[in-house]
Write a structure and sequence with these properties.
Elements: E1 3-6, H1 15-25, E2 29-32, H2 46-58, E3 62-66, H3 83-103, E4 107-110, H4 122-142, E5 146-149, H5 163-173, E6 178-183, H6 184-190, H7 195-204, E7 208-213, H8 233-243, E8 249-251, H9 260-280
Parallel strand pairs: 1-2, 1-8, 2-3, 3-4, 4-5, 5-6, 6-7, 7-8
Helix pairs in contact: 3-4, 7-8, 8-9
Length: 283
Amino acid sequence: MEITLCNEVLRPMALAEQCAFARDAGYDGLEVAPFMLAEDPTRMTAAEIAGARRVIEDHGLTVSSLHWLTMAPVGLDLTSLDGQVGARTREALLRLVDLAAGLGAGVIVHGSPAQRRLGEAPERQRAVAMAHFEAAAQRAGEHGIAYCLEAINRKECNFLNTIAEADAMIAEIGVPALKLMLDVCHAAQEEEESLAALATRYVREGKLVHIQLNASNRRGPGQGERADGRDAIAPLLRALLDAGYRGALAVEPFEYVPDGPACAARAIGYVRGVLDWLDGSPA
């Protein structure tokens, strides 16, 4: 399993600095937040996208995935009933899928809780969001990219809080490119089952294709309140190995302790240490 770093952890470093740091720390690649590439990443030219990919690959890294899709440009909203906002959001999502393809990413993660909340007309808003997901996933499928719906805890978002809810929506939409991902922070707060049980079932069903590692207190993996808490990653990683998971492990802390680079450096050592221990322990 490759281990990648969500690159917003390293802001305000330039892309080349991010790549040099990630490579030297031991990461295999980046999970890219598009707003880290440009103020309006949906307007990047083919030459600019190729240039960004070249910088990453010249450092021996790959782009595993994109996330935080609708942070930029300002004004996108997955659930808006305003026709103009909806049109801008649809166009942006399609362009971001093309950006992912240009960067060589195999996965897109749709989280972005601030831009996907239900309001006074939840059923209508849900239908709007599903239409956006369908269009974006169809474009992703044309590129051979998995478009993942991220379940987010109910404190941050009131739309798709559990993996089962995301799975049900994927079945309802019916586009093969739509897949599931698991974020440790959110799942540890919302799911009744253990992370290991969820991973085992959904990986074996071919639905779970991406993992984001962090802790329920929003810090990096291994920085949770308890070593044996629900956000402990050793049982999850064991389950992923046993189930034959082949996707990436993306390190995505939200709170950087003591700072972004130090948090990223600690995380890669911790995750690789756990994997090395699992490699030598009985299954």
